[in-house]
Amino acid sequence: MPQPRMPTHEKPLVTIAIPTYNRAAKTLPAALRSALAQTYENVEIIVSDNCSADNTEQVVREFGPRIKYVRQTQNLGLNGNLNQCIDRASGDYLLLLHDDDLIDADFVESCIAAVGNSTSVGFIRTGIRIIGSDGTVLSERPNLVTESSSVADLMLAWFRNETAQYCCNMLFNTRALREIGGFQSRNNLYQDAIAQVKVAALYGHAHVKEPKASFRRHDENAGAPSRAGTSNWCEDSLQLVDVICSRAQDREAELRREAMRYFCLVNYLSVGQLKSRTQRLCTYPLVARQFNFAASPIPHLYQNEVRPLLRALKRRLLPRSARPVVRGSDRAS
Fold first, then answer.
1. Confidence (pLDDT) at 94
2. Can you list the domains of the chain with their CATH numbers?
3. Percent over 90 (pLDDT), the chain
4. Rounded distance, CA 118 to CA 8, Å?
5. Is 269 exposed, middle or buried (0-12, 13-18, 19+ CB in 10 A)?
6. Residue 26 to residues 21, 61, 63, 130: CA-CA distances in angstroms?
7. What is the pTM of this model?
8. What is the percent of the chain where pLDDT is above 70?
9. CA distance 192 to 82
10. Which of 293, 292, 270 is nearest to 280 (CA)?
11. How far is it, in rounded angstroms, from Cα 254 to Cα 156?
12. Is the pLDDT of residue 29 over 90?
């Protein structure tokens, strides 16, 4: 009598770790519901509370015993709490689901299917959905990378907006994360991106094209723009460029050129968020020099500084009789 075929691989254990701080009354419950709704069964869920001052523990306990709650005795900072999640994970793979993000019900199932239950892949990434503070979908971006892509091609696809890297759309190999020392960068800003490059270089990567995760964009995760903050982002960007080039030395010249241009432009965008015109005018050339003028700041200076001044001047010079009449109904609309 023929024996039933046994599966080649047992289904890997996946840890969904939710680092949280003071969002019990805001977005944490939605994140918890999306973790609990997974169609993939071999999942552990951990909440790492970074010493919240609200009723986070009560909210988590109300969701039942499937969720393991851990409270830090003191606030470790975001990066410290992320690394605590790595330390406490039992799974072969780890999803770091921030308390304001969401995953689709088949997120884990789709990721594990992409690797055929293998536990040796460095990370698995899906497409991404950007949502607003109220959950409204703002945009969607499929993941156009394939597992056959080299580390160089993976990075070039990121620079060309063919893929997007967020914590919520990536399953990291837990062992690989521990091997590289967890998340770390000079200013703990691009620490997750640096980790993905190191892990991909060591163990490869796999991909799911469809968006299976939602990154929530809101005021609290944007951070208050500052000149010092821009300097820190530039420093982390340059560290990331060096890490990328060191992991793909056969294409270092191409990667460095594309990476310097990409991060120069990204940091120009952050300069544009500074409230003071004086700070903006002083910071654009600083960013340009940091990235060896890989991209010109002139288009940004024109868009953010010159064009608004020209519009204001035109309004002042336009005769009152020639100005358009704004009716009450138009103003209200």
1. 98
2. 14-221 (3.90.550.10), 225-315 (no CATH)
3. 80
4. 10
5. exposed
6. 11, 16, 15, 18
7. 0.88
8. 91
9. 10
10. 270
11. 9
12. yes
